[in-house]
Amino acid sequence: MNNELIHLSHISKSFDDKVILDDLDLVIHENEFVTLLGPSGCGKTTTLRIIAGFETPDRGSVIFDGKDITQLPPNKRQLNTVFQNYALFTHMNVADNIAFGLRIRKQSKSYIEDKIAYALKLVGLEGYEKRSVSRLSGGQQQRVAIARAIVNEPRVLLLDEPLGALDLKLRQDMQYELIRMKNELSITFIYVTHDQQEALTMSDKIVVMNQGYIQQMGTPEEIYNEPENAFVADFIGDSNLFPAVFLRDGLISVDGAEFPCVDKGFGEGRAVDIVIRPEDVELVEAGEGTVTGEVTDLIFKGVYYEMCVDVAGREWVAHSTRPCPVGDKVGIRVDPFNIQVMNKPASEDEEAVPTNE
């Protein structure tokens, strides 16, 4: 594991008596790509602004490389921020935008020219030095904002939903560009988004937040395949989230139907929640699965078909490359390894919530 670089120690923050962050504790290591993920109002942008120095916590401390920087102003911190609106100077050309911070630091002309050339090559904008930023596309403006940040050689690059204004194809292209830049620059990226796919694509570590709390931290694979509560299961990707009974180790019951699983230790006869991803729901001939239902909806999604199956009043969602027509009777089979058992929510914060993002 890389060395610990940032420690947000027991951070709390309120605005107008509304708690935004409640005793948040988070460690970020050198050269990690960490994504703060959650719905609007969960506290992710406030967390980023506290790291940047734009906000001061009510309680707790920000430790950077072993030193307390809680009261240190933003311009004294070894980091730079890229905002969603890019915050470029429209009266300046590309080169002048990139050089702005270097000139404030009174670097030499040759040093600045070398840095501009390096940054433009890194972000794929060679030859754009004299171009007015107002004549650039959204994706090009975003690249200039990143170039302006990296020429200052920050140890940490903070990105606050920087791809939110881009169209889908350009956003996907920029995701891969950011991964490439992170690997080439060997700096720490802290990225804020509400886009689950974005987080799964780019991150070394995902921090799922809700209501000012960290719900779960882990690799994209851990977050997706092993959600710790109903909120994480429902927020990350599509899911079948059902109440169930843990009959005994290796066996659960959903609406009276018994499914083998691999989980242990939840206690016999205990009420639990389970999550099954739609791609793990196998549709077979009626009577051949654990349960049988009727296909009520069929939607073509491009790479796969999404089907809704009514099983005694319970809706199952399945993703498959093989369509089953509406009205067909089908069986449902699930591999035991693809059933994730979770404890019932301990609080409302851990419950699944509808998301419109």
Question: Would you mind describing this structure in some detail?
Answer:
The structure is a single chain. This protein is α+β, with helices and mostly antiparallel strands. The chain has 2 domains: 4-225, P-loop containing nucleotide triphosphate hydrolases (Rossmann fold, 3-Layer(aba) Sandwich), CATH 3.40.50; 238-344, OB fold (Dihydrolipoamide Acetyltransferase, E2P), CATH 2.40.50.140. The protein is built from 8 helices and 20 strands. The strands form 4 sheets. Strands 6-7-8-3-9-10 form a 6-stranded mixed β-sheet, with helices on both faces. A 5-stranded antiparallel β-sheet has the order 13-12-11-14-20. Strands 15-19-16-17-18 form a 5-stranded antiparallel β-sheet, with no helix packed on it. Helix 5 (168-185) links the parallel strand 7 and strand 8.
- Rg, rounded, reads 24 Å
- CATH classification class of the largest domain: Alpha Beta
Low-confidence stretches: none
Q: Could you give a short account of the major beta sheet?
A: 6 strands, mixed
> Largest beta sheet: what is the strand line-up?
6-7-8-3-9-10
Number of domains: 2
Morphology: globular
Number of strands: 20
CATH superfamily label of the largest domain: P-loop containing nucleotide triphosphate hydrolases
Mean pLDDT over all positions: 89
Q: Give the terminus-to-terminus CA distance.
A: 33 Å
> What percentage of residues falls in helices of 4 or more residues?
10-25%
